[in-house]
Amino acid sequence: MSPQPLPSLKGFAVTLRQIFRKPITQEYPEYKRPVYPRFRGRHRLNLHDNGLEKCVGCSLCAAACPADCIRVVPAENTPQNRVSPGERYARIYEINMSRCIFCGYCELACPFDAITLGNEYELSEYHRDDQIYTKEMLLAPPIKQVPVADRERYDTPEPVWKTES
Amino acid sequence: MSAPAVELVTVNVDGREVQVPKGTGMIETALAAGVEIPVFCYEPRLGPPVGACRMCLCEVEGMPKLQAACTLTAQDGMELRSAQTSAKAAEGQNAVLEFILLNHPLDCPDCDKGGECPLQDLTFRWGPSNTRMHFPKRTFEKPIPISPTISLDRERCILCYRCTRFSEGVSEDLQLVAAHRGAQSIITTFEEEPYRAHFSGNVTELCPVGALLPSTYRFRARPWEIDNTPTVCGLCPVGCNTWATTREGKVQRILSRNHPEVDDGWLCDKGRFTFDHLRAEDRLREPLVRVRRRGFEAVGYDDAVREVARGLREAGGSVAIAFSGGETVEQASALARLVRQGLGGDAAILPDDLDPAVDAFRAPLSAIRDAEICLVLGDEPVMERAPIVDLWLRAARRAGAEVVTVGPAGSVSTPPGSAAATSAELAGGGGSDELRDAGRRLREASRVAIVWSGDDHDSGRRAATLAASLGLGDGSGLYVLPRSPNGRGVAQAWYEAGEGRGFDPSGEEELGALIVSGDEAAYDPRVAQLAERARFVFATSMFTGDHTLWAHVVAPGTSYLERDGTVVNLEGRAQRQRRVVDPPHLDELELLARVGTELGVPIAPWAAEATVDDHAELAPRAQLEAPPEFAPAASTNGAGPGLELVVYRPLFSGPGVERVESLAFQRPAPEIELAHADAQARGIATGDTVTVGLNGSGRALRAAVRRKLRPGVARIAAEHADGLGSHVEVTKA
Ligand code: SF4
Ligand code: SF4
Ligand code: FES
Q1: In a domain, A13, yes or no
Q2: How far apart are the first and last CA of chain B?
Q3: Which residues of chain B make contact with A58, given a CB cutoff of 8 A?
Q4: Is residue A159 in a domain?
Q5: CATH number of the domain residue A125 falls in
Q6: Does A27 fall in a domain?
Q7: Ligand 1 test: best mutation among B98, B103, B107, B126, most atoms within 8 Å of CB?
Q8: What percent of chain A has pLDDT over 90?
Q9: Which residue, A119, B8, B245, B461, has fewest beta-carbon neighbours within 10 Å?
Q10: Ligand 1: nearest atom to the Cα of B106
Q11: Nearest CA to B255 among B238, B278, B271, B236?
Q12: Distance of alpha carbon A165 from its chain centroid, rounded?
């Protein structure tokens, strides 16, 4: 017998009670639990309506990133090869997902809303090299889709910059 | 000589009392009181303030309106209130910033200045947070390449006139001007001509916004993505202090790093833009060993070291070495010890061989600016040999000094090659009236600067003799311009490793082995001739060239941005050169250390941490043993038919510069400079095509008529003088 019989018995009681409850285990990956609408997952690079990239390669996201996982190498737009509006575009845009901490600072820093964090969280790979997401991968819609909970049910206010400017 | 007593005045800045010497600028006075006044156009190195931007508005007790602080100087009892304590000044400053930003595109994400932009910083700290401008902004075509190395964005320009003031009052090239008026004012060059000047790149550093930017740095990196390494330029004997910016292991730009005694924060375009040669296509990356009939074969370092050691050992002491003058002291000393102590050789071609006597008149370059009278001797334009020295001379002239240039294009005209004879005349008080006059003024002045710029300098002995006989004391200086960036350091290292001087390569006997160190040496025709007599030739070079036809082992060399060591500039100042990026192969010093191991000479494969990084100091003056006597002057070229040709080595030349595309426009045009009288006699005007040569055979060049040039003399850049003799006939084509 343990020197403190009463607390031990209390503990056993909790265990006993749980045995008869319905398990809350979810059969992932067959069943994917919806994430909150503002969940911060894998990034996306966005396009303008006319197909040009929003990103101008200013590297502000790289400056804001506390994990130092963004690499931007800019280049100049030419009439033959126009990638973004303005003079400059990102020739290379890479995010190292194995270092990213999904803080969303890059999204805040971006003056053009070019980079936003999506909802996808299934980012495991067999090789670390595959964790480096190139511009093409970030521009394309994600392959693995994650269900998102009903926006209406959560308080997601319109951002100030959308309502006031 | 005691310094004149300075009168101190008391000034009150934002309620804080400070004492400063009378006449100190208000910006500095406020700084002394711990108050920062924001500025755009104020830059003391550009001469008197102009008060163009009005960013520095302050309230001064007793003056009804706001004053531009940068245009004021400290007076006794002055009370100044900056925007930090005066609401009126703060309002004025906000209004100024709002005005500056009125037409400013604010395309910071696109702009390369973003992150290191004074306009961004000051707007962030002092400016209004909003604008009331609702009209479309003024636009210009952009960017405009005002030269292949600089692009101009007129929308971003805030008209502070820093760039035009530099062009007008510092480099005096007068090429950048402001045109039109009011909001339509623009910075421009003359009629679409490129901004072609030796110091043009400095305006990109002066511009406080992203209006003038180096095209070579366009969209390369942001300030938070780069590393800046302090180093020293290794391309001319001045040794300007620089920052080398790297991103991801590549050099992206070179910035100046102000050493007030050497460069005053200026940098020539050669130093600023030549870094691209690191990525030249014909760079050697592996050691090459000659294999009979198959030409060269790339080998590993083990094989190369073995091959070099074998070749040198078999030479049996008959070894010669040719230096480039760009090596670090450590490299040169390793080579010298290898040859003199390891192999018993005693022959070297030294690019420069200055006599220690010149060190008795050593002074910092900044002493030129404070001189009363400057004397420039020699055939070579100072600008082409050591450009910063030319800037100091201009600064001296602006400060009121008299600059006497003696040479074929000088204010006192002398025949080419006569610097030695002239110096004897100057010292002895003889020669023409002009010369005698100049000699008298030189002797009377207490602060004199003598610049010797020519190849006939007899190791600088003659220059030292002249300096001694003119009685140069403290505050005066003698500057003998070497031919190569570290020629002085290399010669020093060579002598320290053993006895005896360099040698004369014009012999006939066979040579056991020849070591060619660096590209400059490899391109030297004298060295190529010497190589023909050598049984074994070992060369190190960055690039492929003719020497890859005659050398037996070629090891890849490094650039001055890829090695660590000490360099000695023309003043005799030892400065630290830093490895900015790793070379794509072993560096020379490591290779030499391995060869040394084979030959039994201990060589450290790295440079000791002896010399300092920052603001290297000048060693004290050496003692002058008995002042040397004038040796009889070497005879000049003598008479000949036609015009006497003066060949100079242009600044924008050499193996590195030749491989940088964006500097091609700076290379000398295929041009021959003619004296006014000669041109008139032949009916030639500037721009005409002329035939240059002797006995009918000749080449076509463009003529440029120079009023200053001495009649009977023609001047030409070395790269266009191939195969021309000492005299040429020039006829209109
Ligand atoms: S000059 Fe400065 S403020 Fe203007 S766009 Fe460039 S970074 Fe922005
Ligand atoms: S280009 Fe730059 S340095 Fe020249 S006036 Fe405009 S803002 Fe000033
Ligand atoms: S800094 Fe004083 S007016 Fe520009």
Answers
A1: no
A2: 61
A3: 108-110, 114, 222
A4: no
A5: 3.30.70.3270
A6: no
A7: B107
A8: 64
A9: B8
A10: 5
A11: B271
A12: 26
For B248-278, how does the pLDDT look when each residue is reduced to its tens digit (9 = 90+)? 999 999 999 999 999 999 999 999 999 999 9
> Cβ B143–A87 below 8 Å, yes or no?
yes
Average the pLDDT over B442-471 and give the result. 85
- Contact of B444 with chain A, judged by CB distance below 8 Å, is answered with no
Gap between the Cα atoms of B171 and B411, Å rounded: 20
The per-residue pLDDT for range B705-726, each reduced to its tens digit, is 999 999 999 999 998 888 788 8
CA distances from B403 to B67, B438, B471, B707 (A): 38, 10, 18, 18
Mean pLDDT is lowest, of A135-149, B275-289, B494-508, B547-561, for B494-508
d(CA B314, CA A55): 64
CA distance B561 to chain A (A): 23
In a domain, A1, yes or no: no
Q: Does A62 touch chain B (CB under 8 A)?
A: yes
Q: What domains lie within chain B, and their CATH numbers? A: 8-100 (3.10.20.740), 136-279 (3.30.70.20), 288-354+487-599 (3.40.50.740), 366-477 (3.40.228.10), 643-732 (2.40.40.20)
Chain B residue with minimum CA distance to A70: B225
**If residue B374 lies in a helix (H) or strand (E), which one and from where to where?**
strand B373-377
Q: What 3-state class would DSSP assign to B246? A: strand
Count the domains in chain A: 1
The reply to whether A56 touches chain B by the CB within 8 Å rule is yes
More confident residue, B471 or B568: B568
